[in-house]
Amino acid sequence: MKLKTRLIPMRSGGKVLRLKVFRDIRSQKWMFLAVTVVLMLGIMLFLSFYLSYLYLSDTYQTFYTKTNFEDLSIEVMRVDDVALAKIRKIDGVLEVERRIAIDGEAIINGKRIPVKIISIPESQPKINRLYISEGEYSSFLVLEKFAEYYGLNVGNTMELEFGGNRINPRIGGLVYSPEYIMIVEEGSIVTSPGSYGVVFVKEDLLKRLGYDYNEVKIRVVSEDTRDEVLNRALSTLKGYGVVYYYISDNQPSKKLLEEDLKGFRSLAILFPSFFMIIAVFATYILLTRMIREQIGNIAVLRAMGLRRSEIVLHYLTYPVIIGFTATPLGVILGFMSASILTSSYIDFLNLPYYVSLPHYDIFGYSIVVGVLTPIISGFFVARNASQISIVQALRGYTEELYRYGFGDKLVEVAERLVKLNLLIKLSIRNVFRNRRRMIFSSFSIIASLILIMNSMVFVDSMDYVMDLEFNKILSYDIKVSLEDYNGKEKLKEIKKIKGVIEAHPVVEETILIEKGKTKAVMLVATDYNDLYNIYNERGEKLLPPKGIILPSLIAKNLSIVEGEKIKIYTDFGEREVEVVGIEKLPLMPVSYMSLEFYDGFNEIVVRVKEGSLEEVKSKVERIDGVRKVYTVQKAKEDMMELMGFFYAFIFFSLFFGASLGFSAIFNTTNISVIERRREFATLRMIGYTNREIAMSIFIENTVISIISIVVGLPIAYASAYGYYQSFQTELYYFPMVVYPRTYLISIIMIFAIVYLALIPAVKYISGMDISRVTKEVVG
Questions:
Q1: Amino acid 530: pLDDT
Q2: How far is residue 617's CA from residue 629's CA, in Å, rounded to a whole number?
Q3: Which keywords label this protein (predicted)?
């Protein structure tokens, strides 16, 4: 666009500038739209992810508060009135309750499902109150998600077996519990809604059947007194056979949720921040090249008497419009996305609702950042435009060209191998003729590559862990969970079953490691067999140690080093063991010991003949003393079911990564084409066809893409590594793995995005008015 150089009265200058702004936006609407979309996506992603993180955090905290979630929990062999009265008198204790908790089985449609049976008093417990979603508080309650999975309703009966007893209670209500927002079953890789249940039975019934209280739940006045209260309570219960204890932060469900939130928070900050950086960059490119195109107009404006500050304000109008257009859209879409994302995530949890507090500060922050992001980047460009002298502006913009450089050398080397036509040589030279232009274009491609790689790495790592876990570590077909550690006779009986190839004993339990503070960690003790193997993240097989192998994250948090002796608390009491290895162990960070350290075992792993799985499973389930029979096949299916949300998120990330890449590459490509329209008009005048010019642009962008990919892959890998590490927790560990397919898919996607972004540029060249552009050159 070129302004006529007639004099305009000063009083009309402001109006002219306002008209010019809207004409410029209209003439380059697609490029303005691309920048606006990038900024909008950044705001939308930040709000959707960060609001989801806050909504989840608010939901957990609200539910814990309303249900009086426990501060301390102690499992003992038995606890009487005397001990309970002593704990109640400890300074800092707000409330204390005891209850009965036992393992049993529910028999539904002939299927046996392990359940935790928990006693409840006549009226709602004061600690860990139950949220009743259907029915009423009665003698038998069932977790809502478990009932939903098996199609159970209020009024239905459920058959329960435990300790040789069998009862058929009628379901009085469906409930949610703060202890089981996410169910974590000991010894299980993943717990799906249908693989493990929790039911609540009136304590009078369990007491009549001979069960003693074996759990103590405590709420304290203040978190500051929690550790002191715990120590005094443990001292009080010293003679009652303390089995296990934890503070609320280490409660399995709560800890898993908090670790999950940490990863969510990292995602909510890192991913959108990248979009905002691209938005700054895109705005800078757009305004820089616009000013270069309009350098003659700047001369006219300055000659009209406009001050430098007015020039600055004029060119700041563009990013202001972008900011005020993208921000409201991003905020609205972000809010809607946050609600959908949170609701979808809550569906995976045992929660009756989610809390969406206003969080005006986050909305305000999003609006401020959304508006200021393009303005800040645009300010420097606008200031530079205002400092251009009239004489310099009248001369026009001259590209900083490199007459002989890498492009020419590359052409010379290529021509030694194959004869290149003039168009190809010209295209290769053009790539390196303006290094600034090439850097701008490369940055957009590298940015897109980083986003695609960040998403794909999660898929590779998950596939690697799933293969390692289910094809190497767990080489058995069936795992049998026993009611106690007296499993020798049961092992002999299982080995005699037709279809069983081999069976080996295993110990699986949660132990406490003490060093200044205590940490709960899963322990597996095994003999040397090929059914339950130990592999580290590198896929190296480890032998059952003479001491203990610890997960690196647990060792790091407790400042434990290899060779050190530590105290552990097991089902067999306290013992001291040497740390013989610290390893990064995939999926669930489990500690390992040799079976020699135990006098018994509570698990049996079994390999069966092909086609005999269901028959053997059915026979094992009928053996007395068997608590549950797992199959590796079902565990894998449950894992894949729960990974549905994960893969949906990966698709979401890839979609936005590709969208960002397209917007950024589209912008840089089209601005470059418009900037070079005189050059293309000249080529048309000397006889080149539209197709040949399009081919030259295609070649240029192919060369830039190849260079960007070569430079960008190491950067994308480093970025993915840092991004990935922020998601590691004590509860789950996924080693970062990048398969060759990821590099191939990323490269294909980049070329697809680049070539799609070329289509509008090619159409622009085809529809270009040569005579008009020629007049601009002459003028």
A1: 80
A2: 7
A3: Cell membrane, Membrane, Transmembrane, Transmembrane helix
Upper half-sphere CA count for residue 193 (Cβ side, 13 Å): 19
Strand 72-76 versus strand 242-247 pairing type? antiparallel
**Distance separating alpha carbons of residues 361 and 657, to the nearest angstrom:** 27
CA dihedral 372, 376, 377, 380 (to 10 degrees): 160
Q: Most confidently modeled of 86-100, 253-267, 416-430?
A: 86-100
Rounded to whole angstroms, how far apart are CA atoms 616 and 85? 50
Q: Whole-angstrom Cα distance, residue 112 to residue 406?
A: 72
Q: Which of 451, 410, 441, 435 is nearest to 708 (CA)?
A: 441
End-to-end CA distance of the chain: 12
**Exposed/middle/buried for residue 679 (C-beta within 10 Å: 0-12, 13-18, 19+):** middle
At 675-712, the pLDDT tens digits run 677 777 777 777 777 787 888 888 888 888 888 899 99
pLDDT, position 84: 92
- The domain ranges of the chain are 1-68+257-398, 69-256, 434-462+640-779, 484-624
CA atoms of 551 and 584, how far apart (whole Å): 6
pTM value? 0.73
The number of beta carbons lying within 10 Å of the beta carbon of residue 717 is 17
- Bridge partners for 342 per DSSP: none
Distance (Å, rounded) from C-alpha 87 to C-alpha 236? 7
- The whole-number pLDDT of residue 5 equals 40
Strand stretches in 212-287, DSSP E? 215-220, 242-247
- pLDDT confidence tier of residue 142, bands split at 50, 70 and 90: very high
Give the pLDDT score at 133.
93
